[in-house]
Amino acid sequence: MKKSVKIFIVVAFLGAALLGTSALAVTIENPITSSSIEAVVDRIANFLILVFIPIAVIMILYGAFTFITADGDEAKIKKAKQILTWAVVGIAILLVAKSTVVVIESFLQVV
């Protein structure tokens, strides 16, 4: 394609996008239902725990499987130990993050 045709296509799409959005009255509702910053931080921490704890458990199982099937291969054993170590570190970080939120809330006496 020629350069001028490419420029025309880009300008046409941008123009259609700008005209299309200005003609429609779009309202976006606030997805955050919490009323305070403490509640928002707590919801974020709970979401992270909900998502990453199962991933860490899967990684622990994968590391254990790698360790069992290593058959004495030092490289596989080292890889399995690294997987297990980082999975446990991830769980520890999540738990420390959640406990930090709880400690800050209790320190500020926010209920």
Based on DSSP secondary structure assignment, what is the total number of beta strands? 0
Mean pLDDT: 80
Any low-confidence stretches, pLDDT <50, length ≥5? Answer: none
Which structural category fits the helices and strands? mainly alpha
The largest sheet is:
none
The gyration radius over C-alpha positions equals: 25 Å
> How many angstroms separate the termini?
63 Å
DSSP summary: helix tally: 3
How much helical structure, as a percent, in the residues? Answer: over 70%
Strand content: under 5%
Write down the overall geometry.
Answer: flat
What letter string, H or E per element, gives the SSE order? Answer: HHH
Description:
This protein is mainly alpha-helical and 111 residues long. It has a domain at 33-107. Helix content is 78%, strand content 0%. The protein has 3 helices and no strands. The chain has helices at 3-23, 37-68, 74-107. It is flat, with a radius of gyration of 25 Å. The chain starts with a helix and ends with a helix. The mean pLDDT is 80.
Describe the protein's topology.
Blueprint: H1 3-23, H2 37-68, H3 74-107
Helix pairs in contact: 2-3
Give short descriptive properties of this protein.
single chain, 111 residues, mainly alpha, flat
Summary of the model, kept short:
The protein is an all-alpha fold.
